[in-house]
Amino acid sequence: MATEAPSFKRELLATLPSLRAFAVSLSGKHDKADDLVQDTVMKAWAKQESFEMGTNIKAWLFTILRNEFYSQMRKRGREVQDTDGVFTERMAVHPPQYGVMDLADFKRALDGLAADQREAIILIGASGFSYEEAAEICNCAVGTMKSRVSRARTRLQGMLRIAGEADFGPDAVSTQVATQPSLTR
Amino acid sequence: MRDKAKMNDISKSRPRRMDDGLGPTSDIGAKLRALYGAVQDEGIPEKIFDLLEKLDQAEKKSQTALKGE
Lengths: 185, 69
What we know:
Number of domains of chain A: 2
Oligomer: heterodimer
CATH topology of the largest domain in chain A: Arc Repressor Mutant, subunit A
Helix content of chain A: 55-70%
Structural class of chain A: mainly alpha
Radius of gyration of chain A: 19 Å
Low-confidence stretches of chain A: 170-185
Radius of gyration of chain B: 20 Å
CATH architecture of the largest domain in chain A: Orthogonal Bundle
Shape of chain B: elongated
CATH class of the largest domain in chain A: Mainly Alpha
Distance between the termini of chain B: 39 Å
Distance between the termini of chain A: 62 Å
Number of strands of chain B: 0
Number of helices of chain A: 7
Strand content of chain A: under 5%
Mean pLDDT of chain A: 83
Largest sheet of chain B: none
Structural class of chain B: mainly alpha
Helix content of chain B: over 70%
Number of strands of chain A: 0
């Protein structure tokens, strides 16, 4: 059959997990992220004619999703403030290579970043885009993307250092959450 | 075979960055990828697959309808 060439649908399917992870990082809510991915799939399907097979479908889909997110946000106004934080509190899978505390501190630090910096460091550091691709997705200059990532990294390093020091202090309420005393340093 | 070629394509498109502090040895980069990867591993909700299936079916139907005329 002639339809064995990489189909739009197949390419789209392959990108969905990463697209959804980005949606979760933007919206801070799993249910909203899923709605966002659904809207993106519909939009992308409707304009698949404008996509050139063989070019970067991942960047194309991320751009649609991001535009959709910000246009919905503008429409809804302040309602979007209601989030569970970056990557949300109720992730189904916990990354096995880190302790709960470690990642809780890290998520809090990510939450503390400006939205444009957070988005930049996620696109570059986790989604695997080049600076050029990420700049295109966010509709900004490559230099702007670079400086957002660099500022995000510096801020994260600073916040994590402070969080690390706080773990030793009397205010370390969060250590109560740790299940095993032997893990609390 | 085809899958392998595809994987190579993906890894080729992966950006090689010299030192932006987010590489394999970076703590921040590793934690970012751990969080992101955990969400990726959650799988895709059924309703999104259903939607894609419906879109695909609708398109096929309209295509065969066109050919029939």
